[in-house]
Design goal:
Elements lengths: L1 E4 L1 H8 L3 H8 L3 H8 L8 H11 L3 H4 E4 L18
Antiparallel strand pairs: 1-2
Helix pairs in contact: 2-3
């Protein structure tokens, strides 16, 4: 299971830069890049609300579920070696 963020589409549609969006929603450009590149582990509802307000969209326009059954699951990864 993956949640993908389609922020690029909306930035292109509105003609906004990452810096402009960050300023408009009150977060750092670095955090916008984390969202944009799909590396975010969570999104606050206040941030999602601000994104939707500024970009003129719905949460479902920004977030998309994909069933990635071929991807390696975290539980399939080997456990880290213990330091004794």
């Amino acid at each position: 299971m993956m949640i993908e963020v389609d922020l690029d589409v909306h930035l292109a549609r509105t003609g906004m830069t990452v810096a402009e969006l960050a300023s408009a929603i009150g977060i750092t450009p670095a955090n916008v890049f984390v969202l944009k590149n799909g590396r975010a582990k969570a999104v606050r509802f206040t941030t999602l609300d601000a994104l939707c307000r500024v970009l003129g969209c719905q949460p479902g326009d920004l977030l998309r579920y994909t069933d990635d059954t071929d991807a390696v699951q975290e539980e399939d990864l080997p456990a880290p070696a213990s330091r004794a």
